[in-house]
Amino acid sequence: MSAPATVPPPAPALEEMRSLLRTMSAALQTYRLYPPGHPNRTDAVRAMSEHARGMLQRAGEPPVLFVTRHSFYLGPTLLSRESLALGKLIESFERAGVEAVEFLSGAVDFDIDALAGILVGERPFEPELPGIALNRVRPVLDQVEEDTRELSELLRSYSIGLEVLRDTAARVAAGQAVDLAGARRVIERLATQVARDPSHALLVTAVKSYDEYTYYHMMNVCILSLALGHAIGLRQDQVATLGLGALLHDVGKVRVPRDILQHVGALSEEQWRIVQRHPLDGAAMLLLTGKEMFNPAVTIVFEHHAAYDLSGYPTLTGRTRPSLGARMVAVADCFDAVTSKRSYRKPEDRRQALSILQAGAAKGFDPVVVRSFVRLLGLFPIGSMVLLSTGEVGMVVRNHARLLSRPVVRLVLDRTGAPCDPVEVDLSEQAMGGGYRWSVERSMDPQELGVDMLSLVMSGQVEQSAPDPGQAGLVHEPSHGEPRPAGYVDAHLEDGGPSEQVRIDPDVSAPFPR
Ligand SMILES: [Fe+2]
Ligand SMILES: [Fe+2]
Prior knowledge:
Elements: H1 11-33, H2 39-58, E1 64-68, E2 71-74, E3 77-78, H3 80-85, H4 87-96, E4 100-103, H5 109-119, E5 132-134, H6 146-173, H7 180-196, H8 198-204, H9 213-231, H10 236-247, H11 258-261, H12 269-275, H13 278-287, H14 297-303, E6 316-317, H15 324-338, H16 350-359, H17 367-377, E7 385-388, E8 393-398, E9 408-413, E10 424-426, E11 440-444, H18 446-449, H19 453-459, H20 491-495, E12 502-503, H21 506-509
Helix pairs in contact: 1-2, 6-7, 6-9, 7-8, 7-9, 7-10, 8-9, 9-10, 9-15, 10-14, 10-15, 13-14, 14-15, 15-16
This protein binds fe (ii) ion (2 copies).
C-alpha cells in the first residue's frame, strides 16, 4: 500500500477536480437513464475524461480523490463546496464502497466508463482498472475531534436539505405533489443538532451560493429560525412546524422563471408582480399536496412577507398580525437576504444586517422577535469577520452571555494579510498583567476580504471566494427597512382591492396556538 499524497495539490488541479466532480454528478444521472453504448453516455464519458486528463496534467503527482466523512478530498485538501452541493454523488461512492480513487497517468475513457458503471451499481467493484486504482490508499486525516464531527454532521444535514429542496423543485416542475416526509426528516435532524450546539448551527448559515442561491437561502433561514425557536423556548411540535415553514418559505419561487430570478438590472412591473406571487403559490403547492388536509406550516409560507404592521404582501384580512411563526421567519429571512448578494445591492455584513432589522422593528418586524434574534446572534454575530486590534482578522465562532464585545474568534489572516493557523482565541481572556490581549476594532465584509466563507466554516482553510459570476443577479424581494431597488413595484398595493385579498380563518391558520 503506497502512502497517500499529503502535499496539497496545485490550484489548477483542484479546479479540474471540482469540474470533474460536477460533470460526474450529471453523468451518473445519464448512466441511470440511458443503456450502455448510448451516445449520451459516450458524451458524458468524454466530458469526464477531459477534466481527468486536465487534472493529471496540472497535478504534480498522480492525484488521489478521497471520499470520507461524507466529504470529498483531493489529497489532503477538502473540496468544501462540492462536498456540500453534491450529496447524491457522495452517496453513490459510499454505496459502491469507493473511498479512494487514484488517477494513474494512463487514465482513459475506458477507465472512466468503468468507474461510472461501478458508481451506479451496474458493474461490480474492481480495485484495479488499467488507468484507475480504487481503495489502494487510505486517507491520512487528523484525529476527528468532537468539534469537527458535530460540524460535519451539521453540514451533512445541510447537504441532505439541499437535496430535499432540489427534489421538491423537480416534483413541482413535473406537476407532482410536494413530499413533506423528506423535509420533516431534515427538520428533525437539524432541530436536534441546533439544540445541541446553536453556535455551530449559526456558523453554518454564513454559507452562500451563487448558483443555487434560493436553496441555500431556504436552508439558512431554516437553521436561523430553528435556533430562534429553540432560544425562545418553543415546544418541540412548534419547532417542527416553524422549521418546515422556514425550509419551504420560498418554495413558490419554483414557479418564478429562472430568467427573472437571475435578471440583471431593474425588473419590470410584470416581473415584480410574478416575484410577489411566491407566498401565495408556495402555500397553494403545500395545500395541494393532497396527503394532508392542512399543515400549519402553510401559514408561515403564506405570511412571511405580510409584515408585522400588515403593510407587506399578500394583504391579510381577519387578523391584526401575521402568525408568530411567520414573524419569526420574516426576521431570519431578512437577515439572510441582506447578507447575500442581490441584483441591486452588495451584501451587508452580518452586524449591519442586525441594524436593518432593528430599524424595521415594529414596522416590518415584530420588535420582540427582533430583540430575541439580536440577543441570539450577539453584538458581533457568529460567522462575522472581524478586524482585531493586533491587525489580525478572525471569524466569530461563539459569543459569551456577557462581555458581548469579546466573542471567541477563529484566526483567519495574520497581520500581513496571509492565511494563518485556524487557532481559536477567546477575546474575553485577560493577559498576564491585566488588560486584554485582543479587542475587536471593527467588523469586516467577507467580500472585501475575498475569502470563501464555506471553506472557512468547514475546514478553517482560507480559500479565495469563487469568482463572482457577475451576470447572475440574485433577485430577492427587498426587505422592510431597505431602500427599494430601482424599478421596484409593490404590485399588491396597486391592485390589492377587496377581491384580491385572501381571507384566512385565524382559528385554523394560527401557528402557534394563541
Ligand atoms: Fe420570500
Ligand atoms: Fe426568502
